[in-house]
């Protein structure tokens, strides 16, 4: 299959940049609009692959060969994306081994590895998320094994590959601080008294120093060469492009999609209540033109980057609070905290991509190894809405049956496997409202995928907006349900 997306050219251009130019020019090259905007470890990953690409087809790494999409190039990038997922496979294998090969852990690993998200985003959209999430799963498994120092180091390495994982850094910081750095000793113990725990200042400082030294070493290896060349400001401008606007061209299914939708509803209401609702219609097009840029609102207040940062941090507080004491900071609750931090960042972050939904789905898949009924329900709702929100990434006519078959096969296998290994059926434990919501994706599919675009006239963006808003409801609902399950229950 020759299907590919704009990310295909992104990574082809990065292969060319890292192979053709010296290190000092990697983050300055801008002949293509697809400039290098991932951290240094990923740039070195592209550099390593570029040597194989040059051997396979030298035209792939020609810096001036923009838009090159020969069959040899498509095949190389597809095979490289699939081969890199071996890291995820090995990490999930270790997860199964930690759980002593239980059937439940094998099902959880299968749900993650065979995820439609990796099929859509990596195999067709051409990214390397399987490889990156493999490092994340390794880090989580190391935490489960009690190897906190290595878990933190692995996460630092991951951040130097892709900075989007900063979304879950607060969970790591809180867990490692409480579970690893804070060391306690028993004082006043005797035959008559059990003694009490007291913070061991010396041991705590020593552990903090060890963890800090390893993290600094990792970041120095990644960013040190660029710091030596005085390029950190340029690198930072590539990694954090705040001029791209609140929302991506296709809105991620998060709170801001619902915020934009509410703004549109208020615009309509202003026509009937002009004296009550003031609307600046000229601003309305900025969020529905399908382009990356500043998002302005006709009725509701505009949202600056600082506001999203503060709101996100506040939304993360429940996730961090659940790890606030040594007794509560267990590895299992740590993974739950990672899931909730990912949710908070996805729901309220600045310029979030729809693909970031995988940040919740992958660690939540691991928790299906021993799920409660509510966890199973929320996983089902998130999987249905989250994976469907990725459908617009595969917009070609020839890709329509492929994404439908992948989604249906995964859903049927997931329902069958979870029913066979859990105390309750994944579908049977859903409430009527949850079942109706998931079934509602069927008419949404008809409208957004089968109705010709010409039928929408000037409202060409309406099908994508419907997908974003409808799936955002499922993501929001599952987040609230998991807060109740993980924090309040």
From TrEMBL:
Biological processes, Gene Ontology terms: protein N-linked glycosylation
Broad class of enzyme this protein falls into: transferase
Catalyses which reaction(s): an alpha-D-Glc-(1->3)-alpha-D-Man-(1->2)-alpha-D-Man-(1->2)-alpha-D-Man-(1->3)-[alpha-D-Man-(1->2)-alpha-D-Man-(1->3)-[alpha-D-Man-(1->2)-alpha-D-Man-(1->6)]-alpha-D-Man-(1->6)]-beta-D-Man-(1->4)-beta-D-GlcNAc-(1->4)-alpha-D-GlcNAc-diphospho-di-trans,poly-cis-dolichol + a di-trans,poly-cis-dolichyl beta-D-glucosyl phosphate = an alpha-D-Glc-(1->3)-alpha-D-Glc-(1->3)-alpha-D-Man-(1->2)-alpha-D-Man-(1->2)-alpha-D-Man-(1->3)-[alpha-D-Man-(1->2)-alpha-D-Man-(1->3)-[alpha-D-Man-(1->2)-alpha-D-Man-(1->6)]-alpha-D-Man-(1->6)]-beta-D-Man-(1->4)-beta-D-GlcNAc-(1->4)-alpha-D-GlcNAc-diphospho-di-trans,poly-cis-dolichol + a di-trans,poly-cis-dolichyl phosphate + H(+)
Cellular component terms (Gene Ontology): endoplasmic reticulum membrane
Entry's transmembrane regions: 126-144, 164-187, 207-228, 306-325, 334-353, 400-418, 438-461, 467-488
Pathway involvement of the protein, from the record: Protein modification; protein glycosylation
UniProt keyword terms in alphabetical order: Endoplasmic reticulum, Glycosyltransferase, Membrane, Transferase, Transmembrane, Transmembrane helix
The enzyme's E.C. designation: 2.4.1.-
Topology relative to the membrane: Multi-pass membrane protein
Compartments, as annotated in UniProt: Endoplasmic reticulum membrane
GO molecular function, one term: dolichyl pyrophosphate Glc1Man9GlcNAc2 alpha-1,3-glucosyltransferase activity
PANTHER family documented for this protein: DOLICHYL GLYCOSYLTRANSFERASE (PTHR12413), DOLICHYL PYROPHOSPHATE GLC1MAN9GLCNAC2 ALPHA-1,3-GLUCOSYLTRANSFERASE-RELATED (PTHR12413:SF2)
Stated family: Belongs to the ALG6/ALG8 glucosyltransferase family.
Protein name: Alpha-1,3-glucosyltransferase
Source species of the chain: Linderina pennispora
